[in-house]
């Protein structure tokens, strides 16, 4: 159904602390057009936690971290799925919804971490460590997933590693997430020198400076940050883990040591919490805009296609990850 004036007002009420009225006047017609197109095309929009508020609250049908979006994709019966995220997320959606038309509004919305490793790199690691299973972070291409035994997210990485029942694993491609997981398990972790361009920028000095300038602040770091940064924080967790922490602890003042838009999107959910905002932007996430989503739905561009043989192998690795989650729920 197209949006109504009341619906637009409701959306703006959630984002008005982030978006000035003059900017909203430009955004509102685009949001209305997207809702019209979603109804016309039988489409849904998945939006990652790092999307801007006008996308996260304005047009998304489902929001969350990589695992939540993968789970929603697996459940979706939509004919068209638009990924308001980056390319590897759109590929994961296509793996789990092979019959749907999956669109990425900007094909250049990549990921520094995903680009740090290739399928050939994985084959080389397998040759170097024969018989050692490969656990692959979902922030990777379908080609890399296809060379893997099982995928994981930052939220379930330790559970996935331990679910294999082995003494050591190859954990790729994030060297910092691997190091943080290694401290939570007795399983030996072999890794690869990949990293996220957003999270690797944070330093312990950054966190100490925040503490000095904002007394009583609670620091919550993403595990893609270097271990010494996580050590300086009060809590480390995935974006979903951060939300759960805020719900449970209700800190008066918090700094989320992750991509900027995470805090922007949580302000309205936690009005009693003051968000200190150290800002490292992901330029790839910010390639997705309302204008590009409109164009994507109008033109059915850019479709995500994966070679069927490669997709079958990659899908197995993702489905094994989801099965671990299902076993946890039993």
Strand order of the largest sheet: 2-1-3-4
User: Which structural class is indicated by helix and strand composition?
Assistant: alpha/beta
Overall, the morphology is: globular
Content of β-strand = 5-15%
- Spell out the helices and strands N to C: HHEHEHEHEHEHEHEHEHEHEHEHEHH
Bin the helical content.
40-55%
Q: Which whole number gives the mean pLDDT?
A: 94
The CATH class of the largest domain, by name, is Alpha Beta
In the CATH hierarchy, the third-tier topology of the largest domain is known as Rossmann fold
Helix segment count?
A: 15
Report the biggest beta sheet as strand number plus sense, adding barrel if it closes.
4 strands, parallel
Cα-based radius of gyration, to the nearest Å: 20 Å
Low-confidence stretches: none
- The tally of beta strands, per DSSP, is 12
Summarize the structure.
With 330 residues, the protein is an alpha/beta fold. 46% of the residues lie in helices and 14% in strands.
Which key phrases capture this entry?
14% strand, Rossmann fold, 15 helices, 3 domains, globular, alpha/beta
Task: Describe the 3D structure.
With 330 residues, the protein is of the alpha/beta class. The protein has three domains: 5-112 and 285-299, Rossmann fold (3-Layer(aba) Sandwich); 114-195 and 307-328, Rossmann fold; 199-276, NadA-like (Rossmann fold), CATH 3.40.50.10800. 46% of the residues lie in helices and 14% in strands. It has 15 helices and twelve strands. It has a four-stranded parallel β-sheet with strand order 2-1-3-4, sandwiched between helices. α2 packs parallel to α14 and α4 (66-75) runs parallel beside α5 (87-96). The two termini are 37 Å apart.
């Amino acid at each position: 159904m197209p949006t109504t004036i009341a619906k637009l007002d409701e959306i703006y009420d959630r984002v008005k602390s982030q978006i000035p009225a003059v900017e909203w006047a430009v955004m509102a017609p685009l949001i209305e057009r997207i809702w019209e197109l979603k109804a016309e095309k039988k489409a849904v929009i998945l939006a990652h936690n790092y999307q801007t508020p006008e996308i996260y609250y304005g047009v998304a049908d489902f929001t969350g971290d990589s695992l939540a979006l993968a789970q929603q994709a697996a459940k979706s019966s939509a004919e068209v799925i638009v990924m308001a995220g980056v390319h590897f997320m759109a590929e994961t959606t296509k793996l789990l919804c092979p019959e749907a038309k999956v669109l990425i509004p900007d094909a250049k919305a990549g990921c520094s971490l995903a680009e740090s490793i290739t399928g050939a790199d994985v084959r080389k690691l397998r040759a170097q460590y024969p018989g050692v299973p490969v656990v692959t972070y979902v922030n990777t291409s379908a080609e890399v997933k296809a060379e893997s035994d099982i995928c994981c997210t930052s939220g379930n990485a330790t559970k996935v590693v331990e679910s294999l029942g082995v003494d050591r694993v190859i954990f790729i491609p994030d060297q910092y997430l691997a190091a943080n997981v290694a401290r939570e398990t007795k399983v030996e972790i072999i890794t690869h020198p990949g990293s996220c361009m957003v999270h690797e920028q944070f330093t312990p000095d950054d966190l100490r400076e925040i503490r000095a300038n904002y007394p009583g602040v609670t620091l919550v770091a993403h595990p893609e940050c270097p271990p010494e940064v996580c050590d300086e924080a009060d809590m480390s967790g995935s974006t979903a883990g951060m939300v759960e922490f805020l719900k449970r602890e209700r800190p008066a003042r918090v700094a989320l040591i992750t991509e900027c838009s995470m805090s922007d999107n949580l302000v309205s959910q936690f009005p009693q919490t003051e968000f200190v905002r150290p800002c490292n932007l992901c330029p790839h996430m910010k390639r997705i805009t309302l204008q590009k989503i409109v164009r994507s739905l109008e033109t059915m561009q850019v479709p995500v296609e994966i070679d069927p043989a490669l997709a079958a192998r990659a899908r197995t690795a993702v489905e094994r990850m989801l099965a671990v989650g299902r076993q946890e729920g039993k």
